[in-house]
Amino acid sequence: MRNFARRAALILITGLCFFPVSAQQQTAGEPSVSMPRETPAGAPDYGRISDLVASYASPFYYPALLRRYQAADTTLTTEEFRMLYYGYPSQPGYQPLASRSRFADSLTMAFSPYESPTPEIYRRMVGFANELLKENPFSMRDLNVLAFVYQAIGEPEQARAQMFKVHGILKAIQSTGTGLGVKSPWFVIYQADAEDVLALMGARFSKPVAMSASVEFYPVSNMGEKGQRGLYFDISRIYNGRNRRAAFE
Predict the structure, then answer these.
(1) Strand partners, 220
(2) How far apart are CA 146 and CA 32, in angstroms?
(3) Alpha carbon of 30 to those of 56, 187, 203, 224: distances in Å?
(4) Helix (H, G, I), strand (E, B) or coil at 230
């Protein structure tokens, strides 16, 4: 029997959408990737966003926006989610190349050995997920786990609040381009975010291919549209122009 963690990640709950464990595990009968229909707003200007979120006089002042986000304020717009997500690299806690926290291991261990976790185990999972979100408040996979656990312990409003954040982050990322070419990629600030976006869209994807020092291409087998073979992500902010560049000079 599959372990509880794998089954948990595949559960669909009314009004909520949870990520598949692995896009490679999906069957050939899965539907095509669901692409956004909105016209992209354009690539994020990290410098301009950094200035806006740092200004007390700005409507996008970061501490105020972050409080609204943490409270799952449903009046947050896609533009405000863009400021939150792409403004985070200018905040002290941003460490895109740091090792995954020990709380990730704790969360995995809490899931794995139990077919039917007890309420106490679920509460521990909430604690671990919240600790992870202190380190990266925009981790879609950790928000997803938190939503699942809240639903499991009978707190659907809290579950919906986490999924509101997930979908807000997703729309912000998808607003940065079409995702269909090197010149119009989707911008992410963590490597894992690209995979989370693909999983949330139902993509069957394989390992990324570096197209340049800043753009990676993820082959997707169920794109649906003729001539489209995958999606492109800009990861330039993760490396901030360092480390990967030498390979392309």
Answers:
(1) 205
(2) 27
(3) 48, 26, 9, 11
(4) strand
227 SS3 class: coil
135 touches 92 (CB < 8 A): no
Tokens describing residue 101:
């926290």
Indicate the pTM of the whole model.
0.83
Do residues 43 and 234 lie in contact, with contact meaning Cβ atoms separated by under 8 Å?
A: yes
b/e 117-133 (16+ beta carbons within 10 angstroms → b): beeeebebbbebbebbb
Report which of 111, 122, 139, 154 is spatially closest to residue 10, judged by C-alpha positions: 111
Task: Report the run of H or E that residue 218 belongs to, with start and end.
Answer: strand 215-219
pLDDT at 15: 35
Contacts of the segment 220-228: beta carbons below 8 A, 24+ positions apart: 220/33, 222/26, 222/30, 222/31, 222/32, 222/33, 223/32, 223/33, 224/31, 224/32, 224/33, 224/35, 225/32, 225/35, 228/180
Three-class SS of residue 239?
helix
pLDDT for residue 98:
75
19-56 pLDDT tens trace: 443 344 444 455 788 788 888 889 999 999 999 999 99
Q: What is the C-alpha separation between 20 and 166, in angstroms, rounded?
A: 14
User: CA of 156: how far to CAs of 2, 52, 100, 104, 147, in Å?
Assistant: 25, 35, 28, 23, 8
| Alpha carbons 162 and 168: distance in angstroms, whole number | 10
CA distance 225 to 33: 9
Q: How far apart are CA 249 and CA 246, in angstroms?
A: 5
Q: How far is CA 105 from CA 109, 148, 177, 207, in A?
A: 6, 18, 34, 23
